[in-house]
Amino acid sequence: MGVEIERKFRVRAGWRPDSAGEEIAQGYLSSVPERTVRVRLRGGRGYLTVKGKNGGADAARRAEFEYEIPAADARALLALAEPGVIEKERCLVPAVDGHTWEVDIFHGENEGLVVAEIELGAEDEPFARPDWLADEVTGDARYYNSSLARTPYRLWEER
Asked: What is the reported pTM?
């Protein structure tokens, strides 16, 4: 079984990666808490991803299965997705400890939100925390992409 262990942080206001990233469009065929089924277009390639429940004491760990699909299929599935397609630019930022940060700069309805994620081998794996990180939001459901599709960042009263 595929497992994802990921920690998520807001990025300090004004900080941006040095290099441009890759544009991503993603939508959800299912966004119920027990599972999400996501379709994504990234760099001209299509992906279908199924993720298990996220939250609780193990907010950083969940089942994940991702498969590459034809880009034409991804475009057709995006047209079938629930309302609220996510638009973002993903930049990869190498860390000093060998990890890579994925920094998502959101566009469209989520403009103004910048989030960094790091994938780990274990929940307690140590990692260097760059000074451009702000607060951790790993277990905060508002920051799940499936939640951002339903309730975009621009509609949040508290940021």
From this structure: 0.89
